[in-house]
Amino acid sequence: MDKIAVYGASGFTGRLVVAELLRRGVPLVAAGRDGERLRQAAGGRPGAEVRVAGAGDPAALAAAFDGCAAVINCVAPFEEFGEPVLRAAVSVGCHYVDTTGEQTYLKRVFDTFGEPARRRGVTVVPALADDGGPGDLIAHLTAEALGPGADLAVLTVADLRRPGGVSRGTARTALANRRLWGGDGGLHWADGAWRAGTVARTETVPAPGAGAEPEAGELKVTAFALPGIVTVPRHVRARRVEAVMRAEVAPLFGALTEEVVAALPEGPDAGTRAAARWLMAAYATAADGRRAQGSVTGTDGYGLTAVIAVEGALRLVTGEVPPGVLAPAQAFDPADFLTALEPHGVRWSVLTPA
Ligand SMILES: NC(=O)c1ccc[n+]([C@@H]2O[C@H](COP(=O)([O-])OP(=O)(O)OC[C@H]3O[C@@H](n4cnc5c(N)ncnc54)[C@H](OP(=O)(O)O)[C@@H]3O)[C@@H](O)[C@H]2O)c1
């Protein structure tokens, strides 16, 4: 079987990706900047090779990925270190997935890597984490429930997880992006174009009735820069695409400081991860007023991110996915992909309320 390279294999998410590849019996290259940390993460495991390559060294990156069928990039933040890894993967003909949730990085990947990826015959599917993957797939299925190619007035992607269980790398990424973009580098989609600003008219959404403690009624939400804003308009026709987060969670990201980030553990421990439920939902309203809503939920967002990224990379290697940069729902059959996650405790549904 072809090897898969994990860049940032020594990080919190990277180590989970390494473990998932080993669990599935996939030979791998653990790549990153620090040989000692990489050896701690993967050294000595049968089927795992360590290759050292700094993000600023294109030749070393290309050598690290040489002979691999795909690269799973788990670096942080992607705004700073994502592109050289992607460029090196494409240059040596590797398919590529990553775990980013960063809108501006994601938009640049779609804007600049499509042609190089097509020329090299490789497929790039960024944002294959527990929000960008399931959020994009359930948005597609929810829109489709109103008819294939339905003309939507609005499609809202909602991250409805409760507070808690964020890794230091995720927090550092959120803080770095806020600093880089001066508070609001977010995007929204309106009238056929991406527009600046994290904007949503949606203030409440119906509780999906899924999750550890199913809720009823309406949930308060706040506009939030989710990756779905960049990916969903590529396969759903909607006048507006909005992204929102549970109202009590969104301000926690805004309150991050260097001190708070430094004090966080590298990642939530196994008990916290097992207890932490994530919940992505989508709400579609057709131009004629018909509505649909979908949700996808599971536990252990970081463990599931590893499962999702590995599943995606293996589908690129073994499947018939066209080359280029694709949203998850363009690269994979959305229902089939979500169903493949069910053995990991993922549950999903789409409803069209009467
Ligand atoms: N959106 C989602 O749902 C979701 C879910 C999971 C993860 N993520 C994203 O995935 C990324 C990883 O998160 P994490 O918690 O695993 O972070 P982490 O533990 O901090 O790991 C970051 C990785 O990046 C590497 N790195 C940092 N600076 C580097 C540099 N200058 N050159 C080369 N490598 C460098 C680190 O190498 P060292 O080990 O040598 O320090 C480490 O391997 C984050 O961007 C996070 O937001 C997103």
Automatic annotation (TrEMBL):
Pfam families, per database record: Sacchrp_dh_NADP
- Residue ranges that the Swiss-Prot or TrEMBL entry lists as coiled coil: none
Occurrences of domain Saccharopine dehydrogenase NADP binding (ranges): 4-101
In terms of superkingdom, the source organism counts as: Bacteria
What PANTHER family does the database record attribute to this sequence? SACCHAROPINE DEHYDROGENASE
Name of protein: Saccharopine dehydrogenase
Specify the species: Streptomyces hoynatensis
